Amino acid sequence: MTDVPQVVALSCGEPAGIGPEIAVAAWQKLRSACPFVWIGDPRHLPEGTEFTLVDTPAQALDICDQTLPVMPIAFDGDATPGRADPRNATGVIRAIETAVGLVANGAAAAICTAPIHKKALIDGAGFAYPGHTEFLAALAGVDHVVMMLASAQLRVVPATIHIPLRDVATALTPDVLRSVITITARGLTAQFGINAPRIAVAGLNPHAGEGGAMGQEELDWINELIVQMRADGIALTGPHPADTLFHAAARANYDAVIAMYHDQALIPIKTLDFDKGVNVTLGLPFIRTSPDHGTAFDIAGKGRANPSSLIEALKMAQTMAAARPL
After folding, report:
1. Is 133 a known ligand-binding residue?
2. Which of 49, 67, 174, 295 shows the smallest number of beta carbons within 10 Å?
3. Three-class SS of residue 109?
4. pTM here?
């Protein structure tokens, strides 16, 4: 795909959140080092932003050093920091759809998505998806995607995500874990350029069950699944006790960790690299990254938003695009 411009399409997200201001801060930091085009209503950018309207992402390559390239979408409402306006819901959705269309037809190398506010999308447009990721999967026509949290220090994938802890052992089935591992292995190769990825699997129970003394799932099926998938050619280890899996020496032995539930995955990466974690969606037919935070209504428009995670998300999208096999 050497003919695809290495430009990232950045959808604006919720205009009343910190998305517009961190997009400008990211452009000021990155410029031509990581060219991107912002998709949204330029009225929602911070006052005084230097921007230029473009028709295609490729045009960003010539102007991104001097000005923020913007592919405009007209929204129905203004943007008041901290106060979501449901009238803007249709525009937010169109920005996401536009970004997906650009990467699908080869006009952009990857997409990065600023945070959305689900309630505003439901109220204003009857948004029918549990979240951003599910909407992207529907647009791409895929059934199962995987969330990876990534930074320079750690890549981790939660096998189950936003469910109560009491439900994890039921939701985590052999089919679910097999699918998560398979998608992760493929994504590490196809999108990170790691030809033989090494994946460590965390145990579900404390001390990975300690031989059944602290839980049976490892003995009942997790061990066997890992052995089966290793025989299929995936370089798997585990299940490992989660409390010894994330220190520096352990991290040198794998390219990614499969964690069993939300906090088992997110606590270590947010401890190691809170401001620079990136949300990566694996299993899509295109590259998608996003900052690992929400709309932050409480600080929107106050000049306090930290753009570090968005900067890392844009840079990671560019790096992943460059690493994709030709």
Report:
1. yes
2. 174
3. coil
4. 0.92
CATH number, residue 214: 3.40.718.10
Annotation-wise, does 144 bind a ligand?
Answer: no
Is 88 annotated to bind a ligand? Reply is no
Domain that holds residue 189: 145-283
Q: Are residues 194 and 87 in the same domain?
A: no
| Number of Cβ within a 10 Å radius of residue 220 | 12
Q: Is the pLDDT of residue 2 over 50?
A: no
Q: Could you read off the pLDDT of 214-261 as tens digits, one per residue?
A: 999 999 999 999 999 999 999 999 999 999 999 999 999 999 999 999
Q: How many domains does the chain have?
A: 2
Long-range contacts of 219-223 (CB under 8 A, 24+ apart): 221/174, 222/177
Q: Is 270 annotated as a binding residue?
A: yes
3-class secondary-structure state, position 193: coil
The verdict on whether residue 198 carries a ligand-binding annotation is: no
Q: How many CB atoms lie within 10 A of CB 47?
A: 4
Does 195 count as an annotated binding residue?
A: no
Tell me if 262 is assigned to a ligand binding site. yes
162 is in an annotated binding site: yes
Sign of the torsion formed by the C-alpha atoms of 139, 143, 147 and 152:
negative
